[in-house]
Automatic annotation (TrEMBL):
Keyword RNA-binding: no
GO molecular function: histone deacetylase activity, NAD-dependent; metal ion binding; NAD+ binding
Phylogenetic lineage: Archaea, Methanobacteriati, Methanobacteriota, Candidatus Methanoliparia, Candidatus Methanoliparales
Protein name (record): NAD-dependent deacylase
Pfam families for this protein: SIR2
């Protein structure tokens, strides 16, 4: 059991959210830069965000290759392992969800350790030269870094799969994102169309907190997500 000094309101919110999750049939999660700040990678718009200073931007570039997953990443990986979380959609490029053990991950903005063919969407590890040579012999597409740059379209397979998952889910956990970057932010209205329940975990209120979220768990993802998973496991045992 994760021992964290949480106030009563947050503890109640976690209990209610855990029940909500266990009463749902198809649960997915969507994460953003905020889930990786506790791994030392600055987000963009949070209080220590990279957009707020030149130092922040430099830190983001330097820190990302050495960063390790934090308890928030591990909690979501565990939720998948125990069969509850069906899919994880992330805007992050840092590979930390996979490093924590998450398997069914859609990387909306790509992965910094991969390259991608723009014609057939095949992905390669950045040093997987053998696979790249074999690919070149059968496809004439251009191979580029998988990461999506400003103004570049989202890889069509990631976009379609993410939208399909959002439309299928009946519960969406949104963690560590300001939900302002489109088309990632469009996952939420798509999920809402089917009356999916929205559980938001964030350090601060966002544009969706009061208008869209059914539950808002305010605080660090590295503390709240492990407590949420502990509570889900506890309730599963007593069922
Ligand atoms: P954002 O910076 O716009 O928003 C991050 C949100 O997370 C903020 O609301 C902030 O208050 C919250 N937050 C910060 N630390 C938190 C914590 N420990 N616990 C809970 N909440 C926390 O991020 P975004 O919405 O993901 O949009 C930024 C874009 O930039 C994304 O599209 C992403 O691709 C890219 N980006 C990626 C990385 C990465 O790969 N780690 C880092 C920075 C930016």
């Amino acid at each position: 059991m994760t021992e964290i000094n949480m106030d009563k309101e947050l503890r109640n919110g976690i209990k209610i959210s855990a029940k909500e999750i266990l009463n749902s049939k198809y649960i997915i999660a969507s994460t953003g830069a905020g889930i990786s700040t506790e791994s030392g990678i600055p987000d963009f718009r949070g209080p220590g965000g990279a957009w707020r200073s030149i130092g922040g931007l430099i830190k983001m570039v330097v820190k990302t290759p050495t960063a390790k997953p934090n308890p928030g990443h591990y909690a979501l990986a565990e939720l998948e392992k125990i069969g509850i979380l069906k899919c994880l959609i992330t805007q992050n490029i840092d590979n930390l969800h996979r490093a924590a053990g998450s398997r069914n991950v859609i990387e909306f903005h790509g992965n910094m350790y991969k390259l991608r063919c723009t014609k057939c969407n095949t992905r390669f590890g950045i040093f997987d030269f053998g696979a790249m040579r074999a690919h070149r012999s059968r496809c004439k597409g251009i191979v580029k870094p998988d990461t999506v740059m400003f103004g570049e379209p989202i890889p069509p397979d990631a976009l379609q799969n993410a939208f399909d998952e959002a439309e299928r889910c009946d519960c969406l956990i949104v963690a560590g994102t300001s939900s302002v970057v489109y088309p990632a932010a469009a996952l939420i209205p798509r999920a809402k169309r089917n009356n999916a329940r929205i559980i938001e975990v964030n350090a601060e209120e966002t544009g969706m907190t009061r208008s869209v979220s059914d539950h808002f768990l305010k605080g660090k993802t590295g503390e709240i997500l492990p407590s949420l998973v502990d509570e889900i496991k506890r309730l599963k045992e007593v069922k």
